[in-house]
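Schema walk-through. Below, the input block comes first and the output block second. Nothing else is stored per chain. Lengths vary across the set, and this one has 152 residues.
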Amino acid sequence: MKPATALANEKTLRRLPAIDPLGRLFERWGMLPLAFEETLPMTTWTPICDIYETEKEIVLKLEVPGIKKEDVMVGLENNMLTIHGERKFEEEVKKENFHRVERNYGEFLRSFTLPATIDPAKILAEFKDGLLTVMLPKREEAKPKMIEVKVK
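--- output ---
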């Protein structure tokens, strides 16, 4: 079971609120820079993703249950973070023996344009219990700093 993949117009998808409600919510609250956008391909399934920000980093958590670590790849090119993987159909059970198939199978692809505040040399990815966590550390100059006010 391998799904077909087709890409939609990137600019159209980026601006549809129903496609990226989480990104719009973060933008509205001013929590993430506008440059943190996602390019969404039209695939048969897309793992759900949480994104949050701390003083030191932006953290991305992607749910990929039933997928082996070897079947998930995280890459960075031209300030674009790409997560690609595949949930394979269990071949030990014949397809005609299934009464219902509700889980999604096949390949997925998620791509995020990173803000300039991220230090690409320090990005870390961890995989545990079907949860992929990608830590995107901020550059030192992007971290909030307190400036001492001197009295003369």
